[in-house]
Write a structure and sequence with these properties.
This protein has 300 residues and is α/β, with parallel strands linked by helices. It has two domains: 126 residues, Up-down Bundle (Glutathione S-transferase Yfyf (Class Pi), Chain A, domain 2), CATH 1.20.1050.140; 150 residues, Rossmann fold, CATH 3.40.50. Helix content is 45%, strand content 10%. It is built from 13 helices and eight strands. It is globular. The two termini are 29 Å apart. 48% of the residues are buried.
Amino acid sequence: MPKRQYSFYPGCSSQKGASASNYLTSVEAMCDELDVELNEIPDWNCCSASIGYCGGGELPRLALSARNIALSEEHNRGQDIVATCAACWLATRETKERLEEDDDLMRETNQALAEAGLVLENTTRIRHMVEVLIEDIGYEEMGRHVKKPLEGMKIAGYVGCQTNRPFGIEGESFENPMYLDKLTETLGAESVKDYDRKVSCCGGALAFSEPEKSQALIKEIIEAAYDGGADMIVTPCPVCQMNVEIYQDEINAKYGTRFDMPVAYYSTLMAVAYGKTPKQAGLDGHVIRAKKLEKIAGKG
C-alpha cells in the first residue's frame, strides 16, 4: 500500500528544539507506524497566530500564513497541508477562508507575496492531524496497529478551544466532541465519561499576562479530570498541554492542592500503544512524568 503523503507545517512550538518538540517526536513515531509521510514545507515561517493580533494589521497577519500555503503549493503540490499545532491549524485555515471570501484581500496578499517570488493559488486543504487520523485512516485501522494496549489507564480527553471552535472536527459536537474518547478506547484505555471541562479554555497567553486568571481555569480542568478518576489528561494542543502541565506547582502553592497530573498528546498515547520506546514516544519531554505510560512503553 502506498504511503499517504501530506504537506507538513510543524509550527514554531512543535519544531525540533522548541517547547513542544516531544509532540513532533511522537507524531513522527505514530506516522512511521501508520505509513504516513510528512513532507515539511520548505522555509516555512510563523503563522502569526499570536503576534498577528498585536497591532500589525490584517494583511501582514494573513500574508504570513498565505506564504506557507504558497510554498506548499509550489513544493508539495497536490498534498493537503497538515498541522499538529491547534493555533497553526486555526490561523492557516482562517487565512484560506478569509482570502476565498475577499477578492481585494486576496489580490493584496498576492502583491505582497510577489515580492518574494511567490503566487498563492489558495486551492489547498488545511487540516489538523487529528482530522487525518479520523477521516483518512479511521479508528479501526488505528486499532489494528496496537501492540501494547493501554490497559488499566483512565484518561480525560481535553480538547480545549482551538480545535473545537470556530471550525471543529467534522461530525463532532462542539459541546461534547468525542474523538479523544474514541481514540483512547481504541488504544485499550478507558475514557473519562462526561468530562465537563473537555472544551474549557486553559487561558492561553493569559498565562503570561494575567496568570491568576489562567491558573484558575487550569485548576478547574485538572480538578474535573481527578473527579472523573483520570490517571492522566490527553490533548491535541501544544498550548493546552504546556499550560495544564507546567503550572501545577504554582497552583498547588496558591490553592493548597496536590496536583500531579500528567498531560500528554494523543500521538504520545499512540506511539506507546504502537510499541515505540519511551524516547520515540516523546515521554522524556514531560515535566510531570507519565509513569503509567512509561511502564507500558518499557514492557518487553
